[in-house]
Design brief:
This protein is an alpha+beta fold. Helices cover 67% and strands 9% of the residues. The protein folds into 2 domains: 102 residues, no CATH class; 54 residues, bsu07140 like domains (CRO Repressor). The protein starts with a helix and ends with a helix.
Amino acid sequence: METKVLHDMFWLGVPVIEKMLRPVVVYLFLILSLRLAGKRELAQLNPFDLVVLLTISNTVQNAIIGEDNSVTGGLIGAATLLVVNHAVVRYLYGHERLEQLVEGAPDTLIDGGEIKMDRLKKELITEGELLSAAHKQGFATLAEIDNAVIEPGGTIVFRAKKPPSDELRHDRVMEKLEQLAAELAALRAAR
């Protein structure tokens, strides 16, 4: 009985080359599919996106392992995925144009304080989701934002509007008043 268990755990039901090719094909398919799905799928996940990604992982499981449920087969498949991913990342590191083709380019969502609705629509991001991402970076409203860019990895980077010159002048006047008040208090204390 022990030998049957060990045999079933470690005996490969399919050739090793097939075990290595299956994960590569699925890997390439998923990279292409996620690239076509847009940047949002990578970082701005809502519950629906998460369910889709989890379901995809379960769906492609059999495509990766085939008829083989052995530990050895699983380890070969996982190792192949890790090696292929490492090789792709290493290769793209030295080839900027190819990396941009694979990952995509940044996209401006807010420019000069103006929300670009056509860009939000293209990236499938609602104003509510954009506001939520802004909240996570410390902004109370979208009116505080001068520029927002979604990076190829799905991260949204916000840049605040510079305060108007009236606010800057007011802040300087208040600083001077506080300094004068401190000096006046020091003079009174010296008497």
